[in-house]
Design brief:
The protein is mainly α. Helices cover 54% and strands 2% of the residues. β1 and β2 form a beta hairpin. The longest helix has 32 residues. It is globular and about 55 Å long.
Amino acid sequence: MADAHLPSALSDPTRPSAPARPARLPAPRGPLTASLFELWLGHPPNGALPPLPSLAVDDPLSDDDLQLALYCCWELSYRGFAGVHPGWEESTTTFELRRDLGGQIEGALRELTAAAGTDPLRYLDELTSGGDGPSLSAHLLAAERLDWFLEFLAHRAPYQSKEADPHSWGLPRLAGLPKAAMVEIQSDEYGEGRPGQAHADLFAATLRSAGLDDAYGAWVDHVPAVTLATTNLISHLGSARRLVPALAGHLALFEMTSVGPMGRYAELCDRLALGPEARRFFDVHVQADDHHGPLARNHLVGGLLAQDPGCGAEIVFGAAALDLVERRLAEHLRTAWDRGRSSLRIPLGAPHRHGSGHPEVAGAARATTLDPGAAVAGSA
């Protein structure tokens, strides 16, 4: 929860704060994103438009072109991209593409999680009591590898920069006890209205303390499809009324399983001497989610079941889909590190170009204290 001594935003309305700036368009990863970005940058949203290439893949969860295209379509409904007309958010082209790609991902996730069952409280309790695989947070804590932890932070950046926002899309679609529970959870996620204390802001402070770029959208170019899938999932679940129970299941599982991992990441910040500002994001989650977990289980999920006993399977789907995409991401990280290579598409310290063509160096803020070669797992 937010610190009680910090001033409320309402107590100092003249306090200056930075605007929500748009991200820079990332570099394309295939024919679909190449055509889509050319369309967004080179055509007005209401003019005659060339057709986009179709994209049908065997595994939409791991296809870079598909996941990036969907991520960017959704980004138009968050902060947008510099140089892309705001009208593209509401264009038929963007809407139909988003619906098609989101449908492919939802279909794949429903097929892969079909055996999860229909009893959400039992399913959530089983996942909370302990998984059947190794813990990524325990693995990172035991290794005490700065390069691995920096890569982990880069992977989490696209999701954490939007933390709470897509879940909040569920609020106008809820009523009664479930709505009250989500409002309480979201209020804490946004720092109880205190500027700079929203969890997304605290994560940006963690990035800065670790010497990494904290700009919104800075790490999208670097992360693979399995990482983008974690953000695309929650944007998709927040997009439609029919998916409200799945959205609740997603939020409940996050809140019920975060205390242990967040505590380990906080300890790792100390072991790596990153400073108190680096660990504060994790400490706040340990404190808040100790309360949020039971609240999400009993009031959000329990309240939905009381209102509609038939929504159990959809709640399970949301939780199971989250569990699946997070497991796939953790597996990707550990496999890359075990093989002695970076888990990022563009390793820390490597030059790269945004979709605008401007060259940059990943993690440049830490260049004076961290050998770029050491950012590749196994090279240190």
